[in-house]
Amino acid sequence: xxDRVLVTGATGFFGRHALGPLRERGLEVHTAGRxxxxxxxxxGAAREVMARVRPTHLLHLAWYVEHGRFWTAPxxxxxxxxxxxxxxxxxxSGGRRAxxxxxxxxxxxxxxxxxxxxxxxxxxxxxxASAKHGLHVVAQGYARQEGVSLAWARPFFCFGxxxxxxxxxxxxxxALLAGEQVRVTHGRQLRDFMAVEELGDAFAALxxxxxxxxxxxxxxxxxxxxxxxxxxxxxVGRPELIVYGGLESRPGESQLLVADTTRLxxxxxxxxxxxxxxxxxxxxxxxxxxxxxxxxxx
Amino acid sequence: xxDRVLVTGATGFFGRHALGPLRERGLEVHTAGRxxxxxxxxxGAAREVMARVRPTHLLHLAWYVEHGRFWTAPxxxxxxxxxxxxxxxxxxSGGRRAxxxxxxxxxxxxxxxxxxxxxxxxxxxxxxASAKHGLHVVAQGYARQEGVSLAWARPFFCFGxxxxxxxxxxxxxxALLAGEQVRVTHGRQLRDFMAVEELGDAFAALxxxxxxxxxxxxxxxxxxxxxxxxxxxxxVGRPELIVYGGLESRPGESQLLVADTTRLxxxxxxxxxxxxxxxxxxxxxxxxxxxxxxxxxx
Lengths: 298, 298
Fold this sequence. Notes:
The structure is a homodimer.
Chain A: E1 4-8, H1 19-24, E2 28-32, H2 45-53, E3 57-60, H3 75-92, E4 97-101, H4 127-146, E5 149-155, E6 157-159, H5 168-177, E7 182-184, E8 190-195, H6 196-208, E9 213-217, E10 222-224, H7 225-236, E11 242-244, E12 256-257, H8 262-268, H9 276-297
Parallel strand pairs in A: 1-2, 1-3, 3-4, 4-5, 5-9, 6-8, 7-11, 8-12
Antiparallel strand pairs in A: 8-10
Helix pairs in contact in A: 3-4, 5-7, 5-9, 7-9
């Protein structure tokens, strides 16, 4: 019998980029979400899907993720409960290996170096990050007791096709593609960025591994936001339209949020195979096509 | 308008001893539990009771607490979700002050001194303690965001009327009352014990205060278990029936689990008003009456 992975949130930004890499690793992929007619927030839904699919593996990406609202939405509370019900149903139906998804925002802000799993202090300051962190505490206790192999993915920053249009890379790329000036902050904040296609591959590698506990999913490289924005400008061919410092940065914003990727590299055996430019080229090409198609429909 | 407190788990060991002290502090007490026809594990139940009662205060004691099973029961997962739904419904119906209940088992085992809130490391090793700790992480993030005053009670050990019969004080008291020999461990483990009537009063004091964050509910005094057991023997008048060292203690058992009660004393303004002997006398009298009544029915 082959290994079967159930993926929740499979149509989301992360999920859609993880399905191919999971199949490439020999996993039979099943999905559970609203487009499959399954609402995981409904009691009993998880049990029903587990009884039908009987997955050996679980990649649980579903959550409330609406851009700009997910940090504070009370839906975060419901997703804690639903995620625990999902993990319990998975375990009780014989599941063996689960990857749940946290966030780099679990780490204490204002680090002076890369965030390392199990070493860097956790101090979530938003409801979203608190909900994710609290879920991890409970899920870890349950998985340990039940003998389920559990990894807790902490993705850092990424960009690419199907990203929410209001986010940094899409908003800059689309403005430049339209020939419009775009104002950004000073851009000296360092962030760990990678292309979402690579993040999807890293998720699949983590699912297929037996590494347990928290694992940063990231490149391990810090980019100044201005360099990332500049790269978008270069790829579009309109760097002169970018106005650095034309936006105030958020007060108290972290100046450095970069992952230590020792666990991902040495234990999972995954490293980012490409330069970030290739990802930016794909993202720009995708937005060009999207907006071009939209324009030609007008 | 008076302050109205909604108490969940009001018929439980802690809850029944908190109702009087809450009323003494001027709070109008409402209860929500199975004996009121309310199952808080059912979706929507919390919202319904909040709409009806519109409590200003919440004391949430309900949980899965069956003796011997609560440490590992998967019901712990469902209670995390239900507790978050309860806190959300309370908040959205205008609630202002909530006390949720954790456990001294959240603290890392094998301390060399009293456990202090915010200082002693938290490292739950059981599902029960993990579920409680994870709930606190999420609830704290939500309460902070919503401006609800939230305290997280960490009760230590207690005994008294209505305790589960298999627990230490009832099992020793009932055996001695029946004239039977009773075997206990060496009993040199130090624990922070108080009478449940006092714990109920401490809960009420915490609800009526505006102290936020984790607060140990305990006496601040360490008792060797052999001294507590000996006190039961003295009160019953049959100390010679106790065989110390007649039971193995649990391997790896913590030798010291005592609370620092600085927050409870200085911030909440509550201290244990009595010697532990008075509580033991009440407990023994209660078990004598229970078992006597049962015997006279035979």
